[in-house]
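This part of the workshop introduces the protein records we will be handling. As an example, a complete record with its sequence and its structure tokens follows.
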Amino acid sequence: MSGMIDISNISELTASGYCIATLRQIIKEFFADFPFPYYVSAVLANDAQMRKLNRKYLGRDRETDVIAFSFLDTYPERIFIIDQADFDRPYLLADGLEKDRYIPFLQIGEAYISMEQALAYSGINSTTINREINWLLLHSLLHLIGYSDDTDEKRRIMFARAEQFLSVFYKKQSNKKRGKV
């Protein structure tokens, strides 16, 4: 099912190699089998912004690589509608709206990703910042749908799912470049 995807970079950092289109494609493929339209927001932030969010919402006074705010547990009835004429703004479903003009979307949540942590991980893991941002995005999407990494076993499962998805995603991307679809 299709969805609405909002990706923004509030970090004031740029990095060669990262691509908003790739992040959007990862989200589209991740939710490809989702049974109805969805709305997901991904925000690229810096460490100071991540620390502020972590302190305010999670009570942890430190930087972190991802923070995911899932609305599925908190607001399971939260259905937004999108005016087909203005796909930039979700509105809560209300009585008296022209039903043919609006499309219902389920707001999944918001994923915040630290650009600075991605850059640090790229050095530690000898990968590109693009690869690390993609991995952190996927990690946060898993959090949005209920995965947790608060134990070693849950972390192992979550990391394996992320690696499996990215392996298939990169293989598809490679095949597209070679003309094999």
